[in-house]
Amino acid sequence: MSAASTVPVIDLAAYRAAGEAERAAIAAEVDRACRETGFLAIAGHGVPEDEIAAVRAAVRGFFDGPAEAKEAVRPAKGQPYGYLGLGAEALARSRGEETPPDLKESFNGGPLTRPEGESDPDALAFCYAPTPFPDQPGFRAAWEAYYARMETLAAQIMELFAAALDLPADYFAPYIDAPISALRALNYPAAERPPEAGQQRAGAHTDYGSLTILLPDPGSRGLEILTPGGEWRGVAPPEGAFVINIGDLMELWTGGRWRSTLHRVVVPPEAALERRGSLAFFHQPNWHAEIAPLEGGGASVTSGPYLMAKFAAATA
Ligand SMILES: O=C(O)CCC(=O)C(=O)O
Ligand SMILES: [Fe+2]
């Protein structure tokens, strides 16, 4: 593995304020990043610092809190929301790779609203299942405020993606007007003993949906992406920016032009005793959205069932 490097930083506020020529230049930069590694960073995002601080404090309080508070919000088998403890998930299994479980715990929450008239039993039982919130003052308010910010930001990034693909800005809008996105808070505890063979903080995987908005705690290390040359390379999150990566459905949409890049989180040998905290927002098109290559040709995938199958494989 080579030293950590940064990813291209795109200023969203500058893009939205820019004239046509500058917008085209920024869109071209986004296209390049999505073709090369599928990772970039978004600055000028407009998410207030105090809301970020509030959700970070809330999830930190939860992870550092009593085991009973976590037990109280553990999901039933196969359910996606609530507390998943150490041993609950191995992301590499989403790709059929048998590995020991990831060295992490997480709290997960789903959409804030359910579209009227939704009657698909899988949609109702899986992604529209209620999120069991911990009984911790301020947690739910901070969580939902951050979730709402992420949904708005993701829609803006999808507009930027449309421009980068030479599509009308609102091209993706009908596919993401009832999104089934999930917010996940991650805690990777200090590693008191070396990991088992093949064990990571998060095993090598691609994300499943349209795009992911990551916010690792400042200074936390260990996120790596597989470069086109086949080398694992560390990603250093730029300060004040979100790390964005595209998921499988965006790769499919672009007919493989953009890459849903394999990534993982390792225990950094030089910093094994440092915990890692991170927030990951997985933007996912509407349950019923049929995603097929823009250029035509190739099979389509339905967003909701695809997500559900991937989650089931990773938590089996
Ligand atoms: O820890 C992180 O920042 C990223 C984790 C990740 O890639 C995932 O949960 O999909
Ligand atoms: Fe990921």
UniProtKB/TrEMBL annotation:
Location of the region described as Disordered in the Swiss-Prot/TrEMBL record: 94-117
UniProt feature, compositional bias: Basic and acidic residues: 94-105
Catalytic reactions on record: L-arginine + 2-oxoglutarate + O2 = guanidine + L-glutamate 5-semialdehyde + succinate + CO2; 2-oxoglutarate + O2 + 2 H(+) = ethene + 3 CO2 + H2O
Pfam families xref list: 2OG-FeII_Oxy (PF03171), DIOX_N (PF14226)
Keyword terms of this UniProt record: Ethylene biosynthesis, Iron, Metal-binding, Oxidoreductase
UniProt-recorded Gene Ontology molecular function terms: 2-oxoglutarate oxygenase/decarboxylase (ethylene-forming) activity; metal ion binding
Metal-binding listed as a keyword: yes
Catalytic activity, EC: 1.13.12.19, 1.14.20.7
Domain Fe2OG dioxygenase: 179-285
Associated pathway: Alkene biosynthesis; ethylene biosynthesis via 2-oxoglutarate
Protein name: 2-oxoglutarate-dependent ethylene/succinate-forming enzyme
Lineage: Bacteria, Pseudomonadati, Pseudomonadota, Alphaproteobacteria, Rhodobacterales
